[in-house]
TrEMBL record, chain A:
<dbReference type="GO" id="GO:0031417">
    <property type="term" value="C:NatC complex"/>
</dbReference>
<dbReference type="Pfam" id="PF01423">
    <property type="entry name" value="LSM"/>
</dbReference>
<dbReference type="InterPro" id="IPR001163">
    <property type="entry name" value="Sm_dom_euk/arc"/>
</dbReference>
<dbReference type="InterPro" id="IPR034110">
    <property type="entry name" value="LSMD1_Sm"/>
</dbReference>
<dbReference type="InterPro" id="IPR047575">
    <property type="entry name" value="Sm"/>
</dbReference>
<feature type="domain" description="Sm">
    <location>
        <begin position="1"/>
        <end position="72"/>
    </location>
</feature>
<protein>
    <recommendedName>
        <fullName>Sm domain-containing protein</fullName>
    </recommendedName>
</protein>
<dbReference type="InterPro" id="IPR010920">
    <property type="entry name" value="LSM_dom_sf"/>
</dbReference>
<dbReference type="GO" id="GO:0003723">
    <property type="term" value="F:RNA binding"/>
</dbReference>
From TrEMBL, chain B:
<dbReference type="GO" id="GO:0031417">
    <property type="term" value="C:NatC complex"/>
</dbReference>
<feature type="domain" description="NAA35-like TPR repeats">
    <location>
        <begin position="309"/>
        <end position="614"/>
    </location>
</feature>
<dbReference type="Pfam" id="PF25789">
    <property type="entry name" value="TPR_NAA35"/>
</dbReference>
<dbReference type="InterPro" id="IPR007244">
    <property type="entry name" value="Naa35_N"/>
</dbReference>
<feature type="domain" description="NAA35-like N-terminal">
    <location>
        <begin position="36"/>
        <end position="194"/>
    </location>
</feature>
<dbReference type="Pfam" id="PF04112">
    <property type="entry name" value="Mak10"/>
</dbReference>
<comment type="similarity">
    <text>Belongs to the MAK10 family.</text>
</comment>
<keyword id="KW-0963">Cytoplasm</keyword>
<protein>
    <submittedName>
        <fullName>Uncharacterized protein</fullName>
    </submittedName>
</protein>
């Protein structure tokens, strides 16, 4: 995981937790040095309900945690390792 | 992209162990970035990011909408007390939401979809088509009557969605259709089912005999919704029947008479921002719209649709042309009428009004403008060119129903199309087609230029250039029309000379042949020739009015400049631009036009000098007097010409001198010319005011006290604003 860079996460689905029961699931479009996120195709999940919100910006101060699906992360890491090996 | 398709059936709560927390990693990686760096998808334009919704920002995050306890507890399955009063109040408010949405350009979620009953009905259609009941309160007024009202409004909404999908008008600009993710409009029952439900509700109300105003209002509301459900008939069947529109007006007037006497209050929470917080929503939160207090919006809707339906009665292309020019000119018509016009006019079966093929309709324009028989003409022109011309003509018609800003923008595009078309006709040597195309191009150029004044695009210092340029265009148009009229007159004279020749010829084969030719011409050509000649007379009058009004404006500008009140450049100095650049930018749309060529910047400057009276001139006062006398004379001529046109219109084009083609838009055209007349008189008065004020001002040595503004009078025509002197406001 430590070999990954921010650009590797671009285009991948993140699960961003804002509060106890408010989670945004969306594709990472951009991130800046302050860790403000821009997510697209966002689905908001609150309790048992969910809805689509489109393009959403998440300020650093609002986010509690960022998570990613384990298989996706494993795939990203594997791809990176393979890529690094191919250029060495 | 549905998230579930990416994550499969992953439920975050259930599969938390399938997730890896990368917050720390992100923190670490971000801390290594330079402050100004943004890591982004290379295909993503950061400008798009400005449209994003920021979470935890109350102006952008709809999840932060705070709902009252009543909004949260509201339940469509509860029959709130006083059902008749409440159902009337809900239905009334829902209809006023429709007016706010369609007449006042408000959004769907803050109007129709703010009704919890509408939301509930559309949600229940997620499972498939249903005619109700959509809620079960156990009360027939809620379950049946209100159900049918909401169903009817949803059906109208579906019709509007269909109209919007035709791509005639612009979403957000002309009409908002943010459906909050509801794709269930297609699951609404058919029209006859909805009409059945509304009729059944009306019958149910027959059982109520309390004679209350609420009951009367509810009956009118049901009838209004029935009329609204019938609106689609004008598109699906191209119905020209106006009975439902008349009923819509009648019932709306009745409700308008009752509403001030009623206290209507829907159940608390029944209209809410609830939907914005709970449904898919890609927009910032918006407050519920302030609604109109009566149903006048429906009267506007019905009147405007009735107006556009009149086009079906057109008997010539002179009439369709004049109809398109005038129907949306004085005021912007209701958006539904503006969408319906091109859809009714240019039909799906590729006919115009179900009568003419596109190319035939086009050839009729040529015939009526030139009085030449199209079959003779068509054979010499390639089919491809005719199709292209037809399409441009139909685009012109479609453009006439655009909103006031897009209308001008549409002409901008049209100028290039007409210009290119004219060049193509010149290359195949077709004078008649060429002349008509040139007429359309010049008319469009004049309309485009003058419309800029109506839209308040030009600054006072630009008034000279614009009016002088329109004068220049009008001069070209006048020459063209005179030439066309000359051709028509020559044709008429040729036919008359046949008759004279006949009288001189001795009986025989030659005489018989000429007689046949003469009779054919008299039977088949003469009437059109006379009509065309008289229509050209009208167009010539009209262009002379435009020309004179422009000249008056030019003279007034020159007088103002002679007194040092204004110049053809911005009074604000700029290091980044120049007078020439600003001028060229303003005239950019005409830069690529081949004929008439756009005069150089220096020509504009030079012509202004010719109009100005230098203050060192000994005969300043005499020249000024001459200029004002000239303006007075021009105004008198303009007023006389307008009167002649108005007489022609009032007389139904039967005075034998002029054909205006305004039968279908008689009132509208008369109103337009009255406004033009008012403007002409106002210009004459302004001329006196300018001279008197400025002379007095000089005597009192206060030349810097005034500035020039373009003033638009409510009774006048905005294409010719008054260049008014205004006292500068003292800042201190």
């Amino acid at each position: 995981m430590n070999i990954l860079k921010l650009s590797d996460f671009i285009g991948n689905t993140l699960i961003v937790s804002l509060t106890e029961d408010r989670i945004l699931v969306g594709s990472l479009v951009a991130v800046d040095a302050q860790m403000n996120l821009l997510l697209d195709h966002v689905e908001e999940r609150m309790g048992s309900s969910s809805r689509m919100m489109g393009l959403v910006s998440v300020p650093r101060r609002s986010l509690q945690s960022i998570m990613i699906n384990k298989p996706v992360l494993q795939q990203l890491t594997a791809n990176k390792v393979e890529f690094m090996a191919s250029i060495v | 992209m549905e998230v579930d398709s990416i994550l499969g059936s992953l439920s975050i709560a259930d599969n938390i162990d399938q997730l890896v927390d990368v917050t720390g990693l992100f923190d670490e990686l971000c801390s290594k970035l330079k402050p100004e760096v943004i890591v982004k998808d290379p295909k993503f334009d950061l400008f798009e990011g400005t449209h994003s919704l920021e979470v935890d920002n109350s102006k952008l995050d709809s999840s932060l909408i705070e709902l009252t306890a009543e909004e949260l507890e509201f339940d469509v399955n509860v029959a709130y007390e006083s059902p008749l009063e409440k159902v009337t109040a809900i239905s009334d408010r829902l209809l006023r939401c429709v007016i706010s949405w369609l007449n006042e350009y408000q959004t769907l979620p803050t109007t129709v979809l703010s009704c919890r009953y509408t939301e509930s009905l559309l949600s229940s259609l997620l499972k498939g088509t249903s005619a109700g009941p959509f809620w079960r309160t156990g009360n027939v007024l809620y379950d049946k009557v209100l159900g049918s009202c909401v169903l009817g409004v949803c059906y109208l909404t579906k019709f509007v969605q269909k109209l919007l999908s035709a791509g005639i008008v612009f979403e957000e600009e002309d009409l908002n259709f943010n459906s909050m993710g509801f794709n269930t409009f297609n699951n609404l029952p058919e029209q006859d089912v909805i009409i059945g439900a509304l009729t059944e509700s009306l019958q149910l109300l027959e059982a109520y005999s309390d004679g209350s105003l609420h009951l009367t209002t509810l009956r009118h509301i049901l009838k209004i919704i029935l009329c609204l459900v019938h609106l689609e008939d004008h598109l699906t069947d191209y119905s020209t029947e106006t009975i439902h529109l008349d009923e819509l007006i009648e019932n709306s007037n009745s409700v308008n008479g009752i509403l001030p006497q009623l206290q209507l209050s829907p159940p608390n929470g029944s209209f809410s921002t609830y939907i914005q917080k709970h449904r898919s929503n890609q927009f910032p939160p918006r407050k519920i719209t302030k609604l109109p207090t009566d149903y006048s919006g429906f009267i506007t809707l019905a009147d405007d649709i009735k107006t556009i339906l009149l086009v079906n009665k057109a008997e010539s292309t002179l009439e369709t042309y004049q109809f398109a020019r005038f129907f949306n000119k004085l005021k912007q018509r209701h958006v539904i009428a503006r969408i319906l016009f091109p859809l009714i006019f240019i039909r799906d079966d590729r006919t115009v009004l179900g009568k003419h093929s596109f190319t035939h309709f086009y050839s009729l324009h040529i015939k009526e403008f030139s009085a030449q028989i199209p079959s003779k003409l068509l054979s010499s022109i390639g089919n491809e060119l005719i199709h292209e011309s037809s399409n441009i003509l139909l685009e012109w018609y479609q453009n006439c129903s655009q909103n006031t800003c897009r209308y001008r923008q549409g002409f901008n595009r049209q100028l290039i199309l007409w210009d290119s078309l004219q060049a193509q006709f010149e290359s195949v040597n077709s004078q008649t087609y060429c002349s008509w195309t040139y007429f359309m191009k010049l008319s469009s150029m004049i309309e485009f230029s003058l419309k800029g004044f109506d839209l308040d695009i030009y600054k006072p210092f630009e008034a000279y250039s614009m009016f002088w340029y329109v004068y220049y265009l009008s001069h070209h148009l006048e020459n063209l029309l005179k030439e066309c009229q000359g051709d028509v007159e020559s044709h008429i004279n040729t036919i008359h000379s046949m008759n004279k020749k006949l009288k001189k010829l001795k009986a025989g084969e030659k005489k018989d042949q000429l007689r046949t030719k003469y009779r054919f011409a008299m039977d088949n050509e003469m009437e059109q020739l006379r009509t065309t000649k008289q229509f050209l007379t009208y167009l010539l009058k009209e262009v002379s009015i435009t020309k004179s009004l422009c000249l008056i404006e030019v003279f007034q500008f020159a007088i103002l400049k002679s007194f040092g009140m204004i110049d053809v450049k911005s009074s604000i100095p700029s290091n980044f631009s120049s007078e020439r650049l600003i001028h060229n930018l303003r005239f950019k749309p005409f830069n690529s036009i081949g004929v008439p060529e756009l005069p150089e910047y220096e020509v504009f400057q030079q012509t202004l000098k010719d109009f100005i009276i230098e203050d060192k001139e000994a005969a300043f006062d005499i020249k000024l007097e001459r200029a004002t006398t000239f303006i007075d004379t021009e105004v008198r001529n303009v007023v006389d010409s307008i009167d002649e046109i108005m007489q022609g219109i009032k007389g139904g084009d039967n005075n034998g001198a002029m054909v205006t083609g305004t039968r279908l838009v008689q009132e509208l055209s008369l109103e337009y010319y009255s406004k033009l007349k008012h403007t002409s008189k106002a210009l004459a008065v302004n001329s006196e005011v300018i001279v008197t004020t400025l002379k007095r001002n000089i005597e009192h040595k206060g030349s810097n006290d005034y500035k020039v503004e373009l003033h638009y009078t409510a009774e006048g025509w905005n294409y010719f604003p008054i260049q008014t002197l205004r006292l500068k406001k003292n800042r201190y």
